[in-house]
């Protein structure tokens, strides 16, 4: 008898039973049919309190809906995992069981090889995901606007006249000191917009290669600029981005299959919510109004 009492399995079963009993008394466990899920006030209060402890504020309606949806997904997948026996010989928490089941559906999808036609169609349907940025090489001269923008503009116009009249003038000897190099090589449009600002990028795109122009406005002040080289953006061919397209398409299919699988499981349950007194009911997919 003493050996039995010392057995870790006995301790585990006793503790599990004790926790189940406490949950039942608190209203966290709904008795009756296993195909029925009752989201009780105890569950709702626990979700809200957990969120409050993490973020130091109550959840918004949208965030609360997400908490309940996440709890519901976990509950359904946990029950399905138990029905499939994924818990056998494995002392693991319910979240891990849910992950096992999600990994199982993911593996089934990933075993399906997309055809070249499907990859082409996905690329055509999502060009912005793979479009290659325009690439710029340019030279710029910076002028502080100081307290008087008119003075800065006059300095820019005078420097621009000098450059056009004397093309051999060293641009780095002109203007004011600047944190970024005067000569920029092979800078992507995305980086250009981040470093110099949207207005600078838009103006530079209208320049003719090899010609000085300005003033060009940036987040820092005014510039004179010369566009040295320009490669327009383009949509690459499939063979150039095949790995990325393949990865993205398989990822989309995996998520869609997992959602369909979950929706099918959820349809086998009747889900109700017992809203705490004073709480406004929130519409949640799969929950009986």
Overall description:
The protein is an alpha+beta fold and 289 residues long. Among the domains are: 32-113 and 257-273, no CATH class; 133-231, Roll (Chitinase A, domain 3), CATH 3.10.50. The chain is built from eleven helices and six strands. The strands form two sheets. It has a four-stranded antiparallel β-sheet with strand order 3-2-5-4. A two-stranded parallel ribbon has the order 1-6. A hairpin with a 4-residue loop joins strand 4 and strand 5 (222-231). Helix 9 packs across helix 10 (198-205). The model is unreliable at 1-33 (pLDDT under 50).
Features:
Chitinase A, domain 3, single chain, 289 residues, disordered N terminus, alpha+beta, 54% helix, elongated, 6 strands
Shape estimate: elongated
Q: Strands of the largest sheet, in order across it?
A: 3-2-5-4
Low-confidence segments: 1-33
Distance between the termini: 52 Å
Provide the helix percentage: 40-55%
Major sheet attributes: 4 strands, antiparallel
User: Radius of gyration from the CA trace?
Assistant: 32 Å
Number of strands: 6
State mean pLDDT (0 to 100 scale): 81
Q: State which percent range the strand residues make up.
A: 5-15%
Q: Give the H and E element order.
A: HHEHHHHHEHEHHEEHE
Structural class, from helix and strand content? alpha+beta
Instruction: Enumerate how many helices there are, as a single number.
Output: 11
């Amino acid at each position: 008898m003493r050996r039995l009492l010392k057995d870790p399995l006995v301790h585990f079963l006793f503790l599990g039973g004790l926790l189940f009993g406490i949950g039942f008394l608190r209203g966290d466990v709904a008795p009756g049919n296993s195909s029925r899920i009752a989201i009780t006030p105890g569950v709702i209060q626990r979700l809200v309190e957990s969120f409050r402890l993490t973020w130091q504020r109550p959840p918004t309606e949208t965030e609360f809906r997400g908490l309940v949806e996440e709890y519901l997904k976990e509950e359904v997948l946990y029950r399905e995992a138990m029905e499939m026996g994924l818990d056998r010989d494995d002392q693991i928490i319910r979240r891990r069981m849910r992950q096992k089941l999600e990994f199982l559906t993911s593996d089934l999808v990933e075993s399906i090889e997309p055809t070249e036609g499907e990859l082409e169609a996905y690329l055509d349907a999502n060009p912005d995901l793979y479009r290659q940025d325009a690439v710029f090489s340019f030279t710029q001269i910076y002028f502080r606007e100081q307290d008087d923008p008119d003075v800065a503009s006059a300095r820019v116009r005078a420097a621009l006249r000098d450059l056009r009249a004397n093309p051999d003038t060293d641009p780095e000897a002109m203007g004011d000191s600047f944190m970024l190099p005067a000569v920029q090589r092979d800078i992507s449009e995305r980086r250009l917009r981040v470093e110099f600002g949207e207005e600078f990028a838009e103006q530079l795109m209208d320049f003719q290669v090899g010609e000085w122009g300005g003033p060009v406005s940036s987040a820092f002040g005014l510039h004179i600029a010369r566009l040295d080289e320009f490669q327009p953006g383009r949509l690459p061919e499939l063979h150039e981005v095949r790995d990325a397209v393949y990865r993205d398409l398989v990822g989309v299919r995996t998520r869609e299959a997992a959602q369909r699988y979950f929706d099918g499981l959820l349809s086998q349950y009747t889900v109700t919510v017992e809203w705490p007194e004073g709480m406004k009911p929130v519409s949640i997919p799969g929950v009986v109004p």
